[in-house]
Sequence to fold (123 residues):
Amino acid sequence: MHLVGTQVIPEQGGRSGFTVEFVGEGGEIVSVSMRNDTSRSLNRLNAVEQAKAVMLELAHADVPDSSDTETERKVKTARSARAAKDTAEMERQLDQGLEDTFPASDPVSVTTPSVPGDRPKKR
Fold:
């Protein structure tokens, strides 16, 4: 994979953690999701380095035998809500995202100027 870019995506504004996406030249995307600890030491600046460390650990880890059907079943059940077409979960995630960005996502909070339109003309 020839790396052409990285993206750092905050989860709940970075409070919960970050997802780092490594984008390859052929359109490959490898995502690493990391949860923040209680001291919130993970931030936008060090998230890429932490994700690289996670991928290095994964590369050197022992991979279970491919004939392990229990492992395969667990992997198949760990699909995302979009891949599983779980609309209820996608709605829950959308609501959570809107709550995290409130009041910016609230259309009622849009303000209008209070300057009157009919001002007297100067002579």
